Amino acid sequence: MPKIFYHHASGNTDVVDAVPGTSVMRAAVTNGVDGIIGECGGQAMCATCHVYVREDYLHCLPGMNEDEEEMLEVTSSPRDAERSRLGCQIKVGPALEEIAVDVPLTQAEQ
To answer: Could you tell me which of 108, 26, 95, 90 has the C-alpha nearest to residue 54?
Structure first.
């Protein structure tokens, strides 16, 4: 089962065993991880699931589509050109059995 590590600015880490095929956002919301809202439900329309992917995992991710790129322009916490992604666009499964992300201090509110 894929593992997702959510690192918080406080130093705490939430570790979630995610169902294959689920997103980083959905796994966080389902398991009560603070700091990931997912207001739009995973449609890349709100940026409330903004995460910073840790460097060791960046090479495992697919490229961004235009919708994700646009939503990352309206994040509440500063965008990191290399590491910012929407959690709803990152799916875990056989090709991504583990990922670690840093949770931003704030999320955009709609």
So the answer is: 90
Dmax (CA) of the chain: 33
Residue 109 — pLDDT band, cuts 50, 70, 90?
A: low
Looking at the whole model, is its pTM more than 0.90?
yes
40 and 47 Cβ atoms separated by less than 8 Å: no
| Mean pLDDT computed over every residue of the chain | 95
Q: pLDDT tens digits, residue range 39-48?
A: 999 898 999 9
Q: Which amino acid is at 12?
A: N
Cα dist. 25→14, 22, 62, 71 in Å? 13, 8, 16, 15
Secondary structure in 3-state letters for 39-84: CCCCCCCCCCCEEEECHHHHCCCCCCCHHHHHHHHHCCCCCCCCCE
